[in-house]
Amino acid sequence: MKSRCCCIYNGLRRLFVAICCFLSFVVSLAQSYADIDINAVLADTVGIMSAFDGHSIRQQVALPECAQPDSNFLRFPVGESSEVMRFVEKMDSVLLFRKGRVNILHIGGSHVQADMYTHVFRLNIDSLNGELMPPRGLLFPYSVAKTNNPSNYKVRYGGEWTGARNSLRQFSLPQGLCGILSYTVDTSAWFSVDLNPDSTLRWMTNHLHVLCSSTQGRAYPAVVLEDSTLLSPVREETGYRFDLKESLGKFSLKVVYDSLQAQYPDTFILNGVFADNDEPGIVYSSIGVNGASVPSYLGCVNLERDLKLVKPDLVIFAIGINDATMPNFSDSLFVANYDSLITRIRSVSPECAFIFITNNDSFLRARRRYYVNTNGEVARDGFYQLARQWRSPVWDLYEIMGGQSSMQQWQNDKLAQRDKVHFTRAGYLVVGQLFYDAFLDFYLNSDIKLYEY
Predict the structure, then answer these.
(1) How many CA atoms are closer than 13 Å to the CA of 394, on its beta-carbon side?
(2) Inter-residue contact 185 to 267 (CB < 8 Å)
């Protein structure tokens, strides 16, 4: 009887989520195209709903012949952990009862900093929120650190800023969870973030957390209001918080110093921004640093401090492509480093679940020639060891691509760049959709009991 009830419930979950996604799709179309024939759209339900069968990417994009789309699912080498089951339950609470928050954190290197495949995942996840409007979550204004910023939010800044990132072992100033910082002593320093550059006003914040500090404790951020007045913050463990009277889709911050700045300069250190609000829903944050490895994040002394603000229910690990470039790379050290990072995360979020994403196939460049990076297989073994140890799923991107040397075919098909490490924009869109398909299939088919938070 219990098994049958679970089957009925999980069937209802799949149907409900599919309907929510479909209705969200219809509403978005209606808002974008005033003359749309809603009845015609509704009549095409079967065609649209087929996108939920986990194979939509094959219908939209011609994958390279070496690709293995049938391998596109989350693998549990030793079964689901209680933390994974708890995560699914919290997803149910949001999607079925429209209650509570689910916080997802995605950590990686340059693939994640570019925020292309991760933004595909974000938009798909946000479609599940439907009418709920949870916040954008944790982000870093990369432009302020003089590095590439994702295109899905716009950053402007003024004054003199200097960037530092964990991948270059720049730890003289305290790095936080974002793994990148920017610092200044300039009294004219400011920056602004537009969360909705396409003017859709999807991402709004009325609780703005600025993750920051200063070397002397005499500098702090202030929100610049539309009438140019400055709003002072409330001090908190991660830095400062602004409780806004109205929700904003964009904001500007100025660094404020005391009168001693000219004589005794204080250094203001920006570690990130958490754009929050009071809405329930699924909040997805992605943080990435060009060139970052697992030891890069282990060197971030304020990692736990910032994790307390994010409170992740699920961490998606996509760190490893830079670890595997080392000539003496070993899976044992790779796993040990990950274990240390996971232990630190669990010290803050003891019930946090994990998903491990294997490295993509890649090449190494030496003497102007490219060679297959055979460490890809070694790293893949390491990810499976971690999955067994932490009873967590693996998304095997390495196998889905086609295994060793497959990156060459992806490049030939214009889905990967000439460096044979990174994807093109089209390739990242494919990877993002594949990952979401696998994630959604995992969620819809999880056989757990009903639990309302």
Answers:
(1) 26
(2) yes
Between the CA of residue 134 and those of 99, 131, 160, 283, what are the distances in Å? 11, 10, 33, 6
Note whether residue 365 is domain-resident. yes
Question: Global pTM?
Answer: 0.88
Q: Give the domain range for residue 354.
A: 54-131+281-444
What are the pLDDT digits (tens) for 62-100? 899 999 999 999 999 998 899 999 999 999 999 999 999
Q: Which of 116, 123, 69, 142 shows the shortest CA–CA distance to 417?
A: 116
The number of helices, as runs of H, and strands, as runs of E, in the chain is 14, 20
Alpha helix (H) ranges present in 230-299?
A: 294-298
- Residue for token pair 């463990």: 237
Single residue among 276, 310, 337 that ends a domain in this structure: 276
In 10 A of CB 310, how many CB atoms? 25
Task: Count other C-beta atoms under 10 Å from residue 42's C-beta.
Answer: 12
Write the CB contacts of 145 (distance below 8 Å, at least 6 apart in sequence). Answer: 161, 163, 164, 165, 180, 181, 182
CATH number of the CATH domain containing 348? 3.40.50.1110
Instruction: For 320-339, write each residue's pLDDT tens digit.
Output: 999 999 889 999 999 999 99
pLDDT tens per residue, range 126-162: 999 999 999 999 999 999 999 999 999 999 999 999 9
Percentage, residues of the chain above pLDDT 70 = 85
Q: Are 430 and 119 in contact (CB under 8 A)?
A: no
Q: What is the dihedral of CA 405, 411, 417, 418, to 10 degrees?
A: 80
C-alpha of 410 from chain center: 24
Q: Is 339 helix (H, G, I), strand (E, B) or coil?
A: helix
Do 280 and 92 touch, CB atoms closer than 8 A?
no
Provide the 8-state DSSP code for 233.
-
**Same-domain pairing of 185 and 257:** yes
Read off the CATH number of the domain in which 154 is found.
2.60.120.260
Residue 332 CB contacts under 8 Å (≥ 6 apart), including other chains:
none
Residues sharing a CB contact under 8 Å with residue 163, sequence separation 6 or more, in sequence order: 144, 145, 146, 147, 180, 181, 182
